[in-house]
Predict the 3D structure of the following.
Amino acid sequence: MNCLKNSPKVNIEHLALCFVIFAGMCSCRQPSRSTSADWLIDNSAYRSDVSLSADGKELTVSNGLAARKFRTLPNLATVGLYQLTTGQNHIRAVRPEGNLVIDGVPYNIGGLSGQPVQNYLLPSWIDRLSADPNSFQYTGYETQKIRKRFEWKKHPEWMSQEAVWPPAGVELTLHFEAPAAARVKGLSVDVHYEMYDGIPLMCKWIELENRSGRTVVLNRFVSEILAAVEGSTDVTIQEGWSLPDMHVETDYAFANSVYNGEKEHTVHWVRDTTYTTQINYMLNTPCLLEVRPPEGPEQAVPDGQSFATFRTWELLYDSDVKERRSLSKRKMYRTVAPWAMENPVIMHVRNADEQSVKLAVDQCAETGFEMVIMTFGSGFDMESGDPAYYARMKQLADYAHGKRVALGGYSLLASRAVDEATDVINPLTGKRGGFARFGDSPCLGSEWGEEYFRKITELYRSSGMDMIEHDGSYPGDFCASVHHPGHKSWLDSQWNQWRIISDFYRWCRSQGIYLNVPDWYFLNGSSKAPMGYRETNWSLPREQQEIIERQNVYDGTRDFTPSMGWMFVPLTEYHGGGAAATIEPLSEHLAHYSQRLANLFGAGVQACYRGPRLYDTDSTKAVVKRWVDFYKKYRPILDSDVIHLRRPDGQDWDGLLHVNPSLPQKGFLMVYNPLDVPVEKDIRLPLYYTGLAARAVVREQDLASKTFQLDRDYTIRLNIKIPAKGYNWYVIE
């Protein structure tokens, strides 16, 4: 295949890695491998490039791990989407590069027709495929280095991993002109692809440019169409289909999109009714990918201007093993959202008056905490609009900065009612209520919404504060109002509100303002979202909270890197539970407090420690400081990837293994014992993803080290000892 011939890194290392993948990569039974071949261990050899075949008919963008191949004549179409490690082509049939509905008329972008069957595509068929004269026609291409999506002012003191922005790689731009029969002349389309170095990941978006001499309206778009190889097959009607072997995600994301896989918003795996030779009798196999907004965007594009769709990322998996897929996704976020690697140590102060904030700042400075958030219910008013309030906040921010502590505050956006003129309007009733995700929510396109963002921007510009915790962020609500200045109708309301919130978050990142957002806005600048917990669980007895917390972290780090998710430690009573659930007075529950610190810092996960203080006695202060010092000492490896060893169940030990082959400390094992008796046992410790191939030097805390020879499955047999109701850790070098 030409895509393999033109790919810069298809060699014996790929054959070796194929054996690795087929052997089955898992944390308990590791394959043999060459460390230079596996991109999750060393990806330095995999660089992105664009190549054109000698006859000019085939264009390929590849990085040695993934490749997308296009046929350029008689029109352009994708004819191959390859996972080069496994050799799998994910495409079974040709489709257009996208579809636009302009002034009510649909147009395909590129594409070829005439394929005999939809199960597979023979190279010999491609020369016989024909172009649709009513599609946008391919005119050429250009390449350049990947550009920044937006500006990001880094906080290197909060991150221990290398952050490259923009990501290294190549951008391929495909140019198309409107068909001769188009109702509107002077329209052109650019289809953009980014291929990233060192990861089987690419990004796609479409840009419509209007040089027609008049305004046109883009009613709808489909920015990606793939006739993909089935993830599963079944003759009869089936629920719970396995989807094609890739992760697809867009930055047009709202609410907790990670948990619903984006499907309800933009990424649609649908029936392909033209695929009449599939084995499912009712043609129900979900094997056609369409990436599109649920409605709209219904955007006017004036003459001389352009419109860009949201972006779509496609990650091609090289294994069906859960842990490896999770590692691949976590690598994706580190690549395209590197601000999510910032991991400051955070306190939530319960009151926003000067005395309370200064006490919190002082205690943070004494113990090594790095950020204070004036939490919900604290009295912090992000919507004040009062210059005197701005000045007061500036004084507090200056005080915190003098102690090397960042300061910010909380605001609730959605899930509250404002008034009839402001809130989201139900299209069925013409009134608010009964339609918004959270019951009643303000429309960001209302006059109130415009004023809300003006006030926040003014406050942060004036005060110099460092972070925003934005609760109930825009959840994707449509609004049927025809009176809001920020949108015209139901059809453009979602797109316009998404642009408002994402532009604001991008502005925050350009100013160095850190973002805690309990929704999936990572690709637009957010750094943290909830790791996953139920708030009412903090009303349970303290001892029960300890194990549940570790379960939440164990499960949450499947989808998150440690730095992407926050947990919660209510130091004062929260959701009830009385004295049995409460840590205050801190000195009276020091063993529990220490265990909570060990749970979280040992996982590299930061929590929102909510209360009036971090310590109440010198002994409490010493415990807090010891755990913060522990985290900062091991920060690089604790912020690294997690291999999941044993989920907490209260019946035996549980633990996580942090791994990073690029560090001197290749691994860090954190283990816990929920039992009333000590635990001592031999475990098989999987070291494949540490990058170690022959031997490992293991040290229990600060004790003497011991050298182990790795077995052929890249494991060692390690004797672990954990005190009753305690924890232990081991450093691997």
